[in-house]
Amino acid sequence: MVTPAEQPFRPQVEGAADTDTATFRILVVDDDPALRRTFPHVLARPGRLFDECGSIGEAIDRLLQRHYDLILLDYRLPDANGLALLDWLGDNQRDEAVVIISGEDTIDAAIGALRKGADDYVRKPYHVAQLQRAVDGALHKGALEKTNRLMSQRLKASERLHRYLVESSPDLIFTLDSEGRFSYLNPRVKALLGYERSALMRRPFTTLVMPEDLDRIFGLLSQPSSLPGESFNVELRLRRHHPDGDGDSVTVSLTGIPMLTHENDRRVVGLYGVARDISERKRAEEIISFQAYHDQLTHLPNRVLFKDRLELAIAQAQRRTGALAVMFIDVDRFKLVNDTFGHAEGDNLLRSIASRLSATLRRGDTLARLGGDEFTVLLPDINQPEDAKVIARKILDTLTPPIKLSQGDFRATVSVGIALFPRDGSTAEELTRNADVAMYQVKRSGKNAFRFFDPELNSRHRDRIALENDLRSAIARNELELHYQPQVSFSKRSIVGLEALLRWNHPSLGAVPPGTFVQVAEEVGLIGEISAWVLERACNQISEWQRNGVEPPRMSINLSAHDFLRTDIVDAITACLDRHEVAPAALEIEITESIMMNDTAGVASKVRGLRSAGLSVAIDDFGTGYSALAYLQKFPVSTLKIDRSFVRDLEGPMTNPIISAITGIARGFELDLVAEGVENIEQADALRTLGCDVMQGYLFARPAPAAAAEAWLRSPELLFAQPH
């Protein structure tokens, strides 16, 4: 028969036994009104009531008026960050549960919030399910804590309640005698450490402590004898017991309170201890720390950790008067994989490359991913540049076998730039930048190679960057200009065409040749804007000459291959002609053989569109590429332009079979023919003999501004009056 005193204690606490039916009041603190209105919808449950506010000050006012079970707190608010409210709650001994919702990606923000008492930390962007779990867990935990508080109050009046709390506690509760041996253990020891209580009774507490923490705990256990009444709190690892003998450890937060006698001397007779399992929290902190310093895709060190290691290696090299190397590695053609197979395959490729690169490095080297397809390598303790060269060759060799992707094999190559300390820089930033400069030069020289940094490279790189920056504002500063070179009929001694040639009048460099800046414009994405300016200016000039009573011949302008990637290129050209009231026949578009051969994005259809609109289309530098008659049938062009390289070596009739072939092609396809680069009368006579009458070059005129071109149009005989 069980007496009432022996019956187990089963507390009934409102809101604790069943969190699904209890009433919970939740305060949402966020400066985004739309987000505040969203939370009650996504977190709605029976019995949940929501209040909202947008600042720390408003939140404190609400808290002074009522108690809340949970606070959903944004980390950054207009008047302070969320830590200020955590401080207020702690100072005022409030027991509201707090879930921090933050867009901060630093480990310090998360750890700071948890240490100040936040129950959970949810990082933006988050899944709704993740937020719901955090809220459910915090409310459930709050209910449990409420239960514990109420039971603690009843402990004074009931030994049965005391026994229930101790025996049912989720924490390990124990007492030690004056010798540091267990005199009591609650049942939690079995679930937490795997030991039976009877097996540990009268055994020293230190038998459970891992060897690495013994020195600390010895000092703390001896402290109460000299400082009676002083409690302590420490994190340490306790040994777990397994039947097979392979025990691991559990990290606990241990609070120790000395037990004193009631006599006048107040002697320490033992220790009351509570050990809370914080293994999950420690693992979460480790994960947050890892994510802060490592790339999530490859698990390699990220930019921050690489910089720290490089700075440490530089300091060590300076003390030892040693050397080190930094490599900057960029994956060639990586965009091709992403665009062709998708970003998932691109990620697989990066992981495979990271694995192969890691296998080539020495112990102590550091491989990091900066982001995208860029990697860096730190090579400490190298004796000579040849050491870095050996590793660079290994890197190139290790990527020779194809990488297997789900869509098929892919042969990856990389471009590697190398900078040496102290020769190429004394800081982490200088070494990384100079290795990047060297890598960029490899890219421009054909890729799949390595190169050491050269100070001359840096100078050229700086000049290139300066040129890019100046070019971006050249149109706005009205520095671009069109010059015009006539195309003349030698037999008729008349002007039959004009070619508009772009010039850049740089404020400090003077005239910058197109061969220098057009390629830069294509690489940085400015060529479309410049081509639009050329088209607009050319049409405007034709219209202006017509208003001045001068009827210009057909004007030709050059377009880039990038312009023909535009789906609306034909409409853009015809719209410009309409704006300036210029007839389509007055304009000729010059394209290169490379555009014709690649036929990218339906170039042939766009050429047919231009011809249908009434414009002429010329193939510039004809004969320098891989010309084929089939392409002349596919592309309805109107003019062939003989490249100046064929004209330059012309000495007499029939001395250049290529020109003879080109003139034959032009006659066969009934195309106009223009020879470029004619500089002397012998070349002109030879071209006429070979069947080419229309010429362009210094023999007649150098490219000149619009005013000079207008003078030629009014008096064409000026071009034939004297050699140029």
> How many helices?
26
Average residue-wise pLDDT: 84
User: Biggest sheet, open or closed, and with what strands and sense?
Assistant: 8 strands, mixed, barrel
Shape: elongated
Percent helix among the residues?
40-55%
Structural class: alpha/beta
Low-confidence stretches: 1-17
Layout of strands and helices, then pairs:
Elements: E1 24-29, H1 33-42, E2 48-53, H2 56-65, E3 70-74, H3 82-91, E4 97-102, H4 107-115, E5 120-123, H5 128-155, H6 159-168, E6 172-177, E7 182-185, H7 188-193, H8 197-200, H9 214-222, E8 232-239, E9 249-260, E10 268-277, H10 279-293, H11 303-320, E11 324-331, H12 334-341, H13 343-360, E12 366-371, E13 374-380, H14 385-398, E14 403-405, E15 408-410, E16 414-421, H15 428-444, E17 450-452, H16 455-472, E18 480-489, E19 494-506, E20 510-512, H17 514-523, H18 527-547, E21 554-558, H19 569-579, E22 587-592, H20 593-598, H21 603-612, E23 616-622, H22 629-634, E24 639-642, H23 644-648, H24 657-668, E25 672-676, H25 681-690, E26 694-696, H26 706-714
Parallel strand pairs: 1-2, 1-3, 3-4, 4-5, 16-17, 19-21, 21-22, 22-23, 23-24, 24-25, 25-26
Antiparallel strand pairs: 6-7, 6-10, 8-9, 9-10, 11-13, 11-16, 12-13, 14-15, 18-19, 18-26, 19-20
